[in-house]
Amino acid sequence: MNYEVCGTKIVVLCEEFNPKSILECGQVFSYKLINGFYFVFPQDKLAVVYKENNRYIIEILNGNIEFFVNFFDLNVNYAEIIKKIQKINTENDELILNAINFGKGIRILNQNKIETLISFIFSQNNNIKRFTNSLELLRKQKGKEISYRKSSVREINEILRENKFFSFPTTQTLETLDKEFFASIGAGYRAEYLALAVGELNKFERKENLSTVLLQKELLALKGVGVKVAECVMLFGFHKTDVFPVDTWINKVYFNLIKKEEKINPIKISQILSEKFGDLSGFVQQYLFYYKREKNI
DNA sequence: GTGCAGGTCAGCT
DNA sequence: AGCTGACCTGCA
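Above: the input entities. Below: the structure tokens describing the complete assembly.
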């Protein structure tokens, strides 16, 4: 077992859990680091993650244990995943080994499909600071304030008194939002894409049984969703770990460290890497992305 | 002022 | 199929 439940707290027992790596490896934008505490607010839930007695605690402030066990993917054995990756990894040994070693606390979260889709449409050709700000405005203006139970930690209660957290808007609310609204929260030219996407949300509520190929086809049919965003949505929202999203960072890693010579586009890179790593692609992508971003290798 | 940011689309060959 | 320029906008 990777964890132990203690009232409203989940005590994480394995080594493959690190809130910084998990939350800052680029898969999620519904969190905030305040005074060393990671506040995580997927959908309309709220939890705070911190270290205590050399163990990580996920304290649930709104929501239940089951939700956050699933959210943090706690029933999956990441030590096994890492072992499997190391077996596949034949060339480029050092790069991948270093990336895993650096980011072994990463886990791929199980996020809401709609929230992931909307978030990643905002992300295209944008910078993180700017679009996370847009997402915060979206929550503040169209979500509702998340209520919470008191923490057992005094400092957390102090933070809660000074900070409000807002839920991601419901699908029903999202469906009412138009281009002008998205433009007003700084979406830029993506406002049109978002307005069109919220009109098609009903399609994506129950698509987990779809194969990766068919799901990608449906996502690509949305205007403003290209291969990279589609793959992020599939990986982070649908837990399809057999895709390898290639963004500017993975692109740089590929050219600088893997294949320096030939001219090759991101879609091809994604194909090559996902063929190589199969169902482990998503994990490898996150290790490499985080390693590149943090260490700028 | 200029260039860039976890890309994508339309309009070309 | 594959390539290229344009694209909102805030911030360095």
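Note for the figure: The longest helix of chain A spans residues 128-142.
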